[in-house]
Design brief:
178 residues, alpha+beta
């Protein structure tokens, strides 16, 4: 399986997200170009979660699929950065969110990852009900953010997320610490 994130980057993500159990798996065979990608992902998740009490989340693009495992509720989103259009993101975001976000793709990925992590709480019916903010720049590829309206979803915490740009992809991981 190819390494998307180095061990030091993964360790940094674990610290920022307060999630020492975070695991990230990615593979080109799990992209939607492969008609068997869903079955392959399910089998791989089963292999890593059997007998363990872990949350998981999945995302994929045409050429890459990713899943994450964690002891806390987690969401992941993966997008081809250039495919995310600001006018589409504007339909599900406030003007304040758009102006504060580092990019339309970062905001879109953040909303999607939060939506997935909220499935164990009171997940909203649409991502437009999710409010993202408190963006912090970590480095040229990495930003962190917070779910601003976590109490609306009876979440145990506001959680913290990371958006990471790698090559043509935007990755987002969002954890709600237990």
């Amino acid at each position: 399986m190819p390494m998307i994130f180095s061990d030091s980057t993964l360790e940094s993500f674990r610290k920022i997200l307060h999630s020492p159990s975070l695991q990230i798996f990615a593979h080109s065979d799990w992209g939607s170009h492969n008609p068997a990608h869903r079955e392959l992902l399910r089998a791989e998740i089963q292999k890593h979660t059997e007998g363990k009490n872990l949350y998981h989340s999945v995302s994929h693009t045409q050429d890459l699929g990713v899943f994450v495992l964690c002891e806390s509720p987690i969401g992941v989103d993966l997008e081809i950065t250039s495919r995310v259009q600001e006018k589409v993101v504007a339909r599900v975001s406030s003007d304040e969110e758009l102006s504060a976000a580092p990019s339309a793709s970062a905001l879109w990925c953040a909303k999607e990852a939060c939506f997935k992590a909220l499935k164990t709480f009171e997940q909203p019916s649409v991502v437009s009900k999710i409010s993202i903010g408190d963006w912090q720049n970590i480095d040229s590829q990495t930003e962190t953010f917070t779910l601003l309206n976590s109490t609306e979803f009876k979440s145990s915490s506001e959680g913290r997320g990371i958006v990471r740009q790698i090559s043509q992809w935007s990755f987002c991981f969002f954890v709600i610490p237990s």
